[in-house]
């Protein structure tokens, strides 16, 4: 049976080391959904977004992930408003490399000069002197990948970034980035429905890198009426979303889901997924075995 509300602890969620000196619980919070429709503009309920962020920290979440492109800028500004000065041990991660031309539009810009400007903007909005984890949001096909990653290395050497991550990459791109700078996380699309990045996850497991699955709650055909997700959720008196998160947490010790929401109620439901233990038989059904 799934608990209605629990606090995350090192035992319930497990922990993951990010490089040297940072350790986080394996269930974070994603800041994308704090914004308006189309991930554009301010939220409809500003006070609700602030309350959700503060409740996340109260519940033991110690990794919050965002990006300058969420809003744009809105998510970072809300995080600072709600939580700055940040409590000790809270890791704020953000990303740069995408621009916004309108709702639902995400043109990449991986030019080193843009990434520098993006990072410095994030520093100001988040009200920090150094970003704990800065991630290249997506390779830009118009810019050599090595140049984009090299810009993050320079920012790290200048003390503006503590740790570097990459996102939306292949194994080959991950290895190319690791030739330039130590990489501690990879953030790729991964969920019950979409497992295209299995090879990237396996490489992260080999290297001990954190794997941050974005869009973690999608479950596709597994969620059909009478399907395995519905049956397993009923057995645990849980929602399908909770089972999807529990599956991710069980899938790998380097998995670090960051479900996002602007609702305190939905946040509490997501966090409670850390208290669900799936049996080997249930895992096999969800894995398609």
Written account of the structure:
By secondary structure, this protein is α/β, with parallel strands linked by helices. Helices cover 38% and strands 15% of the residues. The protein has helices at 10-13, 46-58, 74-83, 112-126, 145-157, 171-178, 198-207, 228-235, 240-251, 264-272, 280-287, and strands spanning 15-18, 22-25, 29-30, 63-65, 91-96, 131-136, 161-167, 183-189, 210-214. Strand 8 (183-189), helix 7 (198-207) and strand 9 form a beta-alpha-beta unit. Helix 8 crosses helix 9 (240-251). The chain starts with 9 loop residues before the first helix and ends with a helix. The model has no long low-confidence stretch (mean pLDDT 95).
Give the helix/strand layout.
Blueprint: H1 10-13, E1 15-18, E2 22-25, E3 29-30, H2 46-58, E4 63-65, H3 74-83, E5 91-96, H4 112-126, E6 131-136, H5 145-157, E7 161-167, H6 171-178, E8 183-189, H7 198-207, E9 210-214, H8 228-235, H9 240-251, H10 264-272, H11 280-287
Parallel strand pairs: 3-4, 4-5, 5-6, 6-7, 7-8, 8-9
Antiparallel strand pairs: 1-2
Helix pairs in contact: 2-3, 2-10, 4-5, 8-9
């Amino acid at each position: 049976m799934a608990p209605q509300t629990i606090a995350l602890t090192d035992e319930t969620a497990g922990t993951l080391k990010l490089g040297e000196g940072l350790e986080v619980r394996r269930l974070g919070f994603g800041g994308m959904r704090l914004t308006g429709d189309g991930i554009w503009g301010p939220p409809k309920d500003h006070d609700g977004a602030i309350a959700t962020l503060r409740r996340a920290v109260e519940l033991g979440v110690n990794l919050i992930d965002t990006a300058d492109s969420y809003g744009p800028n809105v998510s970072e500004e809300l995080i600072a408003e709600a939580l700055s000065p940040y409590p000790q041990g809270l890791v704020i991660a953000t990303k740069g490399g995408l621009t916004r031309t309108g709702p639902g539009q995400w043109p990449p810009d991986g030019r080193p000069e843009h990434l520098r400007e993006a990072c410095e903007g994030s520093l100001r909005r988040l009200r920090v002197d150094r970003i704990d984890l800065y991630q290249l949001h997506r390779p830009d096909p118009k810019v050599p990948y090595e140049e984009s990653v090299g810009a993050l290395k320079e920012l790290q050497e200048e003390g503006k970034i503590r740790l570097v991550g990459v996102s939306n990459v292949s194994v080959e791109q991950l290895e190319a980035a690791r030739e330039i700078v130590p990489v501690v996380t990879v953030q790729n699309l991964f969920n019950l429905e979409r497992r295209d990045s299995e090879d990237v996850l396996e490489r992260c497991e080999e290297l001990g890198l954190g794997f941050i699955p974005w869009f973690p709650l999608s479950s596709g055909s597994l969620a059909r009426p009478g399907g395995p997700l519905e049956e397993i959720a009923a057995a645990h008196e849980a929602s399908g979303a909770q089972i999807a998160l529990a599956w991710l947490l069980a899938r790998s010790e380097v998995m670090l889901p960051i479900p996002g929401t602007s609702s305190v109620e939905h946040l509490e439901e997501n966090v409670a997924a850390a208290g669900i233990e799936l049996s080997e038989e249930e895992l096999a059904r969800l894995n398609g075995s």
